Amino acid sequence: MGCSSCGTAEKGQLPKGCRNNGACSTGGCHKLNVFDWLANMEHLAGEQSSVVEVRFKHTRKEFFLNAEGIQLVQGDVVAVEGSPGHDVGVVSLSGPLVKMQLQRLKHSGQGLKKVFRKASTTDVERWKEAMDKEDEFRLKAREAASLLKLKMKISDVECQGDGSKSIIYYTADDRIDFRELIKILARDLRVKIEMRQIGLRQEAARLGGIGVCGRELCCSSWLRDFRTVSTAAARYQQLSINPQKLAGQCGKLKCCLNYELDSYMDALKGFPANNIKLKTKQGIAFHQKTDIFRKTIYYSYSERPDVFLALAVDRVQEILEMNKKGELPDNLEDWVLMKPKEEDASHTFSNVIEEGALDRFDGQRKKRKSGRKSGRRRPAQNQKSGQHASEN
pTM for the whole thing? Predict the structure, then answer.
């Protein structure tokens, strides 16, 4: 996703490659990156926006009002208004593109919190101290929830930049009464506790991971809106309804099932239903499978279900029209695109068990060794015969 040089930093310092400290344009340095394609335009270079987008831990992003007109660019660390106190984040987007982002997300832009200042050295140090406590707070929160026997899963803890508040993200199937949990955590951690329930998809987006495609999860890299995914999307794409293969790391259906669904829906407009059977004089044929983009449907007779006959979609429509009129074609072989290959009666099947045995190569190795030995002996015998002949 990003430049490979970002992983070559020494002791947590700036990356050796781009040296942008997470603000590179490749999109791999942080989650839900937005490329500012208006940044290098001369007539928009001096234009500033009163609203900036600030990124916090993982996928949490919020818009803040830059009321004082501070000169902010992407990558600046800022102190913003919190509840209570202040929070610290990184500017992920500024300039005229923020207005377009607000329109795309259907954000009114009213009631926004303010940007206080650019973060000072003291703000950054307190921010790092608060982040170092997150792992400890998460373990203590899980222990407390286990002691109280609450049916909830605490997935992540995020501490505010000034260290005065901690947000605990959890998932649960039912409504949870966590009032006693908040009392215990507030007493032990000595900070204000805020509980936020998130869904399974939001949990996967925050934690991140690698999908079966080998790339970073879409929800944690670029996907912001989660649309409903149904098993009908898998049926339209001729996928087997296997929950283990269709489910993502969140346990729900993969979001990528919707990516190509529109293309499949357009391609299936001219296809007949799968439950319609073709009637011929030779017998009734039923549907076996469909190759959507090749416009091919495979049928087989009830008497010979193992023999697939490939028919074009327009050919199938012609046969259906004939059946509606009461006419029956002689057979489907005259309508197929490719006739099935006839099996050779003289073909003999080999013993698969013997072929799969572990010692099936032992005989060949012995033959090779004996051949090598015999090949080595022959030159020696020839040399001896040559020596006897010379002596005589």
Answer: 0.69
Please tell me the distance from the alpha carbon of residue 295 to that of residue 313, in angstroms, as a whole number: 6
Locus of tokens 């590179």: 24
Place of tokens 């013993």: 351
> pLDDT, tens digit, for every residue of 292-336?
988 999 999 988 888 899 999 999 999 999 999 989 988 888 888
Q: Residue 82: how many CB atoms within 10 A of its CB? A: 16
Q: Which letter does DSSP use for residue 4 in this model?
A: G
Q: Which of 225, 209, 175 is nearest to 195 (CA)?
A: 175
Q: Kindly compute the dihedral angle of the four CA atoms of residues 27, 39, 96, 111, in this order, to the nearest 10 degrees.
A: 50
3-state secondary structure of 343: coil
Backbone angles phi, psi at 391, to 5 degrees: -65, -40
d(CA 228, CA 251): 14
- What is the spatial distance between Cα 225 and Cα 124, in angstroms, rounded to a whole number? 31
- Asked whether the beta carbons of 84 and 160 are under 8 A apart, the reply is no
Side-chain-side CA neighbours of residue 225 (13 Å) = 5
Question: For residue 68, which amino acid is it?
Answer: E
Closest by Cα among 296, 369, 284 to 332: 284
φ, ψ of residue 79 to 5 degrees: the values are -100, 125
Report CA torsion sign: 18, 21, 25, 30: positive
> Alpha carbon of 179 to those of 145, 182, 285: distances in Å?
11, 5, 65
Do residues 56 and 89 lie in contact, with contact meaning Cβ atoms separated by under 8 Å?
yes
Nearest to 257 by CA among 228, 215, 292, 222: 228
The phi and psi torsions of 201 (rounded to 5 degrees) equal: -70, -40
